[in-house]
Structure formats: structure tokens, C-alpha cells
Amino acid sequence: MTRRFTVLGALAVVCAAVELVAGRGMSPGAVWDVLNGGGDATERHIVFQLRLPRLMVALGAGACLAVAGLVLQSALRNPLAGPEVTGVTPGAVLGAVTATALGLAGWDSPLAVVLAACAGGCAGAALLWLLAGRGRGDPAQTAVHGVLVSAVLGGLTAMVLLVEPGELGSVVQWLVGTTEGRVWEHWHLLWPWALVWGVAAWLLAGPLTLLRCGDDIALAAGLSARRARTLALMCAVALTAGAVAAVGALGFIGLLVPHLAVAVFGADLRRSLPGAALTGAVVVCGADAVAQLSSRLLATALDSGRLTLPVGALTACLGAALLLLVVRRTPSRTF
């Protein structure tokens, strides 16, 4: 197990190094020169004020989404449960877009955007709990109500776009997910939030393990299944809101990475939860590096200096292809 964490940590370092040198505007040699203390003021600004915070935000958001997904799948006993079923992701998007449309926030004020997104995410989760409360925490009803809440919030986002069509670019960035333009303020807002709720998720490893075995076994062990599930959902909501507020709705990270973490680190949540955090950080960081390299190559091939491939588009395409492959290879599996 230690060897697996070491290998994954080394892979995270490699992905981080690739992401630092993958962007446009500077050659890898120039980046290396800046890291060694050289370079001019512009090059140092690009590396330390643009690329490095973007890297850190990608790592933190990936870890949050992966842990949130594993917590949800364990609490709801549903292998296809992801952060989207809590209503937090579309709620955060709606909050950020609405605040931007009203002029209360903008891309030049990261704190206001993050606060608006967190408020929207928490409102989406509150709406879910209001509707699913009568089910006394039933996993199936919670998942179904989550899908309905997400659909309603997505429709409200579309209505905001109809009223303020000039916010199309903001809507697309939040719906697809991107690390473009992230600065140190985003990271300073994300890491304390991620640390607190990540530790809380790890402390819930024992109750989550019992919930995965079924409510009857949890009750026989003296655990209040409803209370434990509520705490787990609260933790997943907080982690998802923090990640979406920082980078938008990155598709399939919270759905597929937990399965990969369990396959690598085993079913013991005391190991698989930290493993999921590290795996999610590696996946998002690696995907962002590939997206930047692809943008660089496409811009050169098409002679378009403004062409940018968002990381969320890449994770959505690869995640959908991987999910389809798994379903086709195991057609008898019940999801």
C-alpha cells in the first residue's frame, strides 16, 4: 500500500511538472530557467502568478471531487452516484452565473464569484434535503430527487442566459469546467475548505463502511444510519461546492475516480479516501496538462492564438468513453 501511494505521488509530481511547461507563451527551457531563479519579470509573473496557482487549484479541485464522489457512492450505496446527484454542481453554476449577470461578481473578483457559487451550491443541496427529507434518508429516493433538483437548477441557469445572453461565455465556462485564469486568491480560498472537509470525510470512514453494508447491518452495529448519511452528504456537498466554485463543473471526476481509487487501494475507506484524493488530483492535473498541450498544438496548426481547450471538455469526453467501455465490457453488471 505504501508503494502504491509512493507511485501515485511520483505520478502527481510528473503531471505537475508537465502542466507547468505545457502552456503557451513560454518554452519549457524558459520555465526551467525561471524555476532556477532566472528569467525576466514577465516570465516570472507567468510562472509564479498564473501557472503555479492554476496547477494548485487543479490539484485541490480534483481531490475534492474525487473524495466527494467516493463519499456519495458509499453513503447512497450507488456506484453511479456522483456530485451531480446532490444538486450542488448545477446550484453552484447557477449561483455564479446569476451573481455575474446581476453585476454582483465577475472574473476580476474571485472572492465574490466563489462566494456566489458556494451559496448556490448550498441552496441546491438544501432544496434536495427539503424534497428528500420525507424519505428519511432513503438512498434511492435521495438519488432520484437529486437528479430532479439538478434538472430544475439547470433550467434556471438556462433562463438566466435567456435574460442575459451576454453571459453565454460565463455559463459555458462554469458548465464545462476550466482552470483558465485561476490565481492565488482561488487557491487561498480552496485549500482550507478542502482540508477541513477532507479530514471530516476521513473521520467518517467507519460509518461509511457500515452504510455500504446496508442500513440493517449499520443499525445492528449501533449506528444511526440516517444521521450518518446526513453527515456524509453534508461533507460531500461541502467538498463539491468548494471544487465547483473554484473550477466549475468538471465532468465524470466524482463518478469514475472513486472506482479507480477503490480498485487500486482496496475497499477500506481509511486508505481509499486519501487514495481517491491523490488520484483525483493526478487525473485533473494530468488532464489539464493534456488540454494545454492540445491547445498549443491546435493553435499552431490552425494559426489561432486564442484557441483554448477547457479541461472540463477533455474530462467529459474521456470519462464518457471510459464509462461506455466499462458498461460494454461488463454487460451483466447491475449498476
Give your account of this protein's structure:
The chain is an all-alpha fold. Helix content is 77%, strand content 0%. It contains 14 helices and no strands. α3 packs parallel to α8 (184-203), α4 (88-101) packs antiparallel against α7 and α5 (110-132) runs antiparallel to α11. The longest helix is centred in the first third of the chain and has 36 residues, at 41-76.
Describe the protein's topology.
Layout: H1 2-22, H2 28-35, H3 41-76, H4 88-101, H5 110-132, H6 139-163, H7 168-176, H8 184-203, H9 205-212, H10 215-220, H11 225-247, H12 253-265, H13 269-302, H14 311-329
Helix-residue proportion: over 70%
In quaternary terms, these chains amount to single chain
**H/E order of the elements?**
HHHHHHHHHHHHHH
Mean pLDDT: 84
The biggest beta sheet reads: none
What is the first-to-last residue Cα distance? 28 Å
Q: What is the number of E strands?
A: 0
- The radius of gyration computed from the alpha-carbon positions, rounded to a whole number of angstroms, is 20 Å
Give the uncertain stretches in residue-range form. none
Number of helices, where a helix is a run of at least 4 consecutive DSSP H or I residues: 14
Q: What characteristic shape results from the CA principal axes?
A: globular
Strand content: under 5%
Structural class: mainly alpha
InterPro entries: ABC_BtuC-like (IPR037294), ABC_transptr_permease_BtuC (IPR000522)
Keywords: Cell membrane, Membrane, Transmembrane, Transmembrane helix, Transport
Transmembrane segments: 55-73, 85-105, 111-131, 143-163, 190-211, 231-257, 307-327
Family: Belongs to the binding-protein-dependent transport system permease family. FecCD subfamily.
